[in-house]
Amino acid sequence: MIRPERLVVGYLDTNCWIIAPDLPGRPPALIVDPGDDPDYLAAAAASYDVVGLVLTHAHADHVLALSALADSLDAPIIGHPAEREVWAAELDHLDRHGYLDAGTATKDLVAAGKAPRPTPGVPLWKGDLDQEITAPTTISLGPLQVAVIPTPGHSPGSLSLYIPGHLFTGDTLFPGGPGLTSPDYPLTDFTAIMTSVRQLLTYPPDTVIHPGHGLDTTVAAELPFVETWQARGW
Fold first, then answer.
1. What pTM does this model have?
2. What secondary structure does DSSP assign to 14-46, as a single string?
C-alpha cells in the first residue's frame, strides 16, 4: 500500500523521503525533510500530487530546499513550532562562523575544505509553518493514514511518522542507537530522546525504520540494545 522513495541530498547525505500510496497516476504524497538540491527533489516530485512538506526537525541539512520546494510545488510546510528555535540557532551559527553546524561532522568537513554552506541563490527557510504539530495527529494520503508523532530529544520539536510497517524517524533513531545529543550541540536532550526511542520501539518487530541518514533497520534489530544505549549515555 505504500510507495516510499528515498532521495539522498546535501553535504551530510540526508535521506529525503517521498511517502505515497502505491496507486497508479499521480498519488497524493508527503515529502519528508527536503534537505537540499531543490531542483532534483522537484523533478522527483513531478510523479506525485504533493500535499505537504514535513520536517522531522529543523537542522539545516534537513531544510535547505524547503522554501524553494514549497514555492515550486505550492505545498504547505508542516512541522513542530519548537523547531523555529532550532533553525534560529542554525542561522546564528552560520552568521558567527560563516558555515553551518553539521554536528560531529563539522570539524572534518571544514578541515577538508568542504565547510557546509547554503547554496547561493536558494532561499533559506523563514521559519514559517502552514500546519503546526504539537501532539500526535494523522495526515490522510488517500487510503493511507500517516501518524505524525512528536519524538523530542535530538531537537525539542522532532517528529516521526508511522504507517503500518514503516517508521520514518528523522535523526531520532538510527541503526545502532539514538541521534546526536550533546552539551555541545544546542537544544538536544539525551533523556528525552531515549524516551522517544523507547516509544518508537513499541511498534511491531518487523516495522522498517527509515532514518534521516544511512540505511534502514527494523524494530526487532534495534530493540535488544536499548539498555546498552541508555548505559553508554549516547
1. 0.97
2. EEEEEEEES-SSS-EEEEE---S-HHHHHHHHT
